[in-house]
Amino acid sequence: MKSIGAKTVKAQMSILSRSSATPTPEPSSLTPSKSPPTSKRHPEKAIFPNNSEPFIRELNSTFASLLLPAIKPLFARTAEILSPVSGKFFTEARSVYVPLPWGVEHDEDWDPLEKMYNTVYEWYQKTEGKWIMGDAFSYADITVASSLLWYKRVVKEDEWARISSWNGGKWVQLLADVEQECNLA
């Protein structure tokens, strides 16, 4: 991250506290950060290029709304790889938003995820570059790639092969492009 000019910035953030009396975390502080947006601190490598922040925020919201119906098998795999205590907490906390049961046993559990990525693929196809905003790498691409990286880390090999095959291998290529763009490779 230093290669793109990122520095450690001390900022206030929300803290989750958990006592034995409350099984779910309660925010103890919701003080917003007083730091200026990243694009103002690092204008040479803006993740909201060309005043695109409103567009990208809307895209991020749409992406999340598409992901929610598709997330059960991913939550199930995530809970499986966590320690028993963490898996229990993860399941309890997420089941408030995504009701149980979560499963990965049936192909139809994966259909909503594939449908979501077909929609996202259409977004990429409407531009003339490799990114959602054409030739400009942005937070929108980070959103898509970070979810893909999560899947790659938690799903089984055959499940990742399935995701990797969607849309002609677009998602494997996107991860490689983001790794290169962010100097992670």
Overall 3D geometry? Answer: globular
Q: Biggest β-sheet: count, sense, barrel?
A: 2 strands, antiparallel
Strand content: under 5%
DSSP strand count: 2
Instruction: Note the total helix count.
Output: 8
The helix/strand order is EEHHHHHHHH
Portion of residues within helices: 40-55%
Structural class: mainly alpha
Quote the distance from N terminus to C terminus.
12 Å
Give me the CATH architecture, please.
Answer: Up-down Bundle
Under CATH, the topology is which?
Glutathione S-transferase Yfyf (Class Pi), Chain A, domain 2
Describe the protein.
With 185 residues, the protein is mostly helical. It has one domain (47-181): Glutathione S-transferase Yfyf (Class Pi), Chain A, domain 2, CATH 1.20.1050.10. The protein has eight helices and two strands, in the order E-E-H-H-H-H-H-H-H-H. The chain has helices spanning 38-41, 53-67, 72-81, 84-94, 111-125, 139-154, 157-165, 170-181, and strands at residues 15-17, 26-29. A two-stranded antiparallel ribbon has the order 1-2. Helix 3 packs antiparallel against helix 4. It is globular, with a radius of gyration of 18 Å. The model is unreliable at 8-33 (pLDDT under 50). Residues 17-38 have a biased composition (Low complexity). InterPro entries: Glutathione-S-Trfase_C_sf, GST_UstS-like_C. Residues 1-47 are annotated as: Disordered. It comes from Suillus luteus UH-Slu-Lm8-n1.
